[in-house]
Structure formats: structure tokens, C-alpha cells
Amino acid sequence: MKFLIVGPGAMGLLFASRLKKLTSHEIFLLDYKKERADFLNKQGIKVEGLKGEFHVYVPVITKEQIDFSPDFVLIFVKAYSTKDAAYELKEIVSEDSCVITLQNGIGNIKILEEVLQKKVYGGVTAEGATLISTGHVRHAGSGDTIIGPSSDKLVELRDILNKAGFSTQIRNDIESFLWGKLLINVGINALTAITGLRNGMLIQIEETRFIMQECLKEAMEVVKKKKLKLPYENPFQKTEEVCRKTSQNISSMLQDVLAQRPTEIDFLNGAIVKESKKLAIDTPVNQALTFLIRAIQKSYKHRVTKR
User: Fold this and answer.
1) What pLDDT does 181 receive?
2) Considering 4, 25, 78, 131, which has the largest number of Cβ atoms within 10 A of its Cβ?
């Protein structure tokens, strides 16, 4: 089987390296930057963290170098790059290709299906990874990977991911898990990016814990109005649990802010705000967090970093 992993960020590198190391399948990484692809091909991928340290070489290619139709396409690009990635894949994927998004946020499946004109599967993963430098990733937290809805191809993918060390399940109610992951990200990511704190500290400080609780209350109003069922009973307790389990993790949004990159805020707290407006619900805390992150993004060059 041929795998195409789209996006050489922390999660893309983690999945590509473990699939290469622990399975016999052909694994390729897709990168839109030729210089970075060349660097990764020369240096390889270094993984450290929960399950030890290892170094592996995964072929990294650009769109122009693809001369095959992949059996499985796993998408890990930032949500704001989903449409661009979809257009890069349009001439590559075939009817037999199984495309699955394991990205953050809501709306990626719809974007991919509109461009690719084919069924796209959804997924969420509780694996935590931090990009230390190009090609160097720290595996900071482990957890279940949920994909769905069920199909013969997804059963095959589940078995391969399990062999690679990712605890993977198939669920037909995948929308429930997508929204469940969204709420956890809504409670954590923006707050870490604004405060500069690791996940675990958010629940140790009274003020950040309170803001987390309030933004999750707003998000739950949207969930209830949309008549969605989450995979857990209490979103605040679940988010606290994730904070404890990934206490030393630097969230993806904080990593983006530290590197002065765009963030996924419009697909997280911004998505809650967007949905709330359709439903005539007020979400002032999520609106404030969204505006603050947008302001940080717009002011990278003007930020005070020392006295």
C-alpha cells in the first residue's frame, strides 16, 4: 500500500515516521516547499518522547514528483491551508484513494469534498506532538485515534495504524467526535497562545480556568442548539482531563504564535462564533478570544519582546 502524508508538521512527521518504522508499506510525505523537502530527505526525521527516540528516513516529495495514485491520503495541514492542499491533491487521488483528514477544527471535510469531488473521511487523534525544529518532533502525549464512518478501506487503515502503534477505532458517529475534539481545542488552544502557558498550567490558575469554563459553556449552547451528541458528558471535565494528561504539551496554536505563523483560530473558537451567529446565540468569550488571537497575528512585527 502507498501512503501519502500531507503536511510535514509535528503530527504529519509523527504519523509518517511511525508508519515507516513499524509497517512494511510505502510511506511518502508531501511538502509544498522544495527546499524543506530536500532538507528532510537529507536529514531524515528524528522522533523523541514517550516511546523512546529513533531516526528514520521517509521520502519527502513535492506535487510535481508524484507519479502514483496513493491508496491512503492522511491530511495534517493547518485548517487554513485545507483548500490549497485539496487543489494540490485533485489530480493525484483516484476513485480508489481513501482520503482522511486528521486536522483540527470543523469544516475541513466539506472543503475537501467540494474540491476533490469524492467521499472524504473524518478523524480525530489525541496524540500530542511538538515540532522542535524541521524534521525533529517530540511525542508529548498519547491517546486514541478515531476515524469514520466505517468502510472496508477504513477497516484496513485502522489495522495499519494500530500496527504502527496508534490506538485506532472506527466510529460511524464521527461528527460527534469531531465536535468533541473541537470543544477541547476551543478550551485550550487560544488560552495557551495568549498566555504562553503549557496545557497543564491552564487549570492551575484560577483566572484561566474560569475563562476556559465560560468559553466551553458558550460552545455547549451551540452544540445543544445543533442537537449534536458529544462523546463525553461534561466538556469542562474532559478538557481538564486532557490538560492533565498533556500537561507539558505546547499546544499547536502556541507553537504557531511563538513561531509568528498564522493560527487556526477561525476554525476553532472562530468556528463557534460563526455557528452561534447562525443560531442567534451570543458567544462573547469566544469572540474575545478570537479577536485577541487575530490581533496577535496581525501584530507579530510590532510586539514588545524585551524592555
Assistant:
1) 95
2) 4
